[in-house]
Amino acid sequence: MFSSGPSGNAPQRLTHPTHASEPAAKRHQTEPPSFAADFGACYSNFCFVTGVSPACVPPAAPRLTQVVTPRRTLDVDRVVPAGITDGTLINIADDLKSLSALATRAHLTTSPLPEAKRHFERLLASLEASPNLTCWRSAFENLLNLHDTLEQRTAHAMVDLLFDASAEQHLPEAKALVRTARNARFDNVLRGRLEAIAAMPPATRLNAWRDTLAAIQRCEGYYEASTANRLAKCIGALPETDREVAILGMLSDGAKVIRGPGWNSLATTLYRTCAAESLPRVMRATLDAATHAHVHDADIKDAVMTTAQHIDRCPLQDAEDVLQRLVAITTLEDEYDHLGFTDLDAISMLRDLRHFSNDDRRAYPRPNFDYLIQQQCSYAAD
Questions:
Q1: Which of 104, 152, 280, 295 stands the most exposed, by the fewest C-beta atoms within 10 Å?
Q2: CA max distance for the chain
Q3: How far apart are alpha carbons 224 and 231 in whole angstroms?
Q4: How far apart are CA 102 and CA 181, in angstroms?
């Protein structure tokens, strides 16, 4: 019925099926069962898989080492075309609660810090390349607002790099450093806007400058004396009839308080920009803004000394009044008694005022500086 032996029609040797992922089982030959003889099969036609014995176990396969593929960084330049960035910028400018603005904030919050910074830089570069954008002012404000999230993450990342166990105590310094870097970057964007204003038709410059000033003044933590000085330098590009209006608008009581160091440079820019007949009004406004801003005493000293250096440009009928005001600030008279000058500060400032007053060769009534200095010395002695 069945053929046997090694002929081509002989039954195939039985083998245990194996899988590619597991080693082949050890095959063990044994005596064929009794029914095998009834079919005329010989011993060589059967191979049975039996229980594994220690002698039959193959050596252990080498342990595979997992290959870790490095994560590919997102190339924002390739994934996000420039046109999409420009559109996102316009949406952010229109409404900080728009879908694009919310998605951008989420991206800056959750994505890896280098990727988030690169994405934000693309938005900022898009604004920098479009200084004449109709919505430039709101775009500048909203981007500065969005940067707060990135600013916090960067400061904490800097602290995390410190090995000091009390690294958190350095968080204020890290935030100050990040804020300085942020302001420097936004200064470049503002510079491009002011250059664009200077290139506009003369009749439109004042309104464009005013709108830009209003936008910058609304930026918390950014509008300081150094920023005001940058805006003041652009006033020189305005028509002469508009310069005093722009300066007094920056220094008026209703304007944003100007804080931070740099009053020396700001006052110098303002005095050199305005015409001589406007100088007394600009000086009074500058001194009022400096003393009412509650800035550091050193900054008020800078404003006082810079004003004294330019007093020789004042019209003769106004020089006496300006000089009297400088003396009142120095000696803490009346409305200036809230300032924190010491007697030694007053003595030093009075001597400087006397020096600058003597440089003005014109004849007009002046305070008795020798008497004032002697009086302050007696106060200091007490």
A1: 152
A2: 145
A3: 11
A4: 24
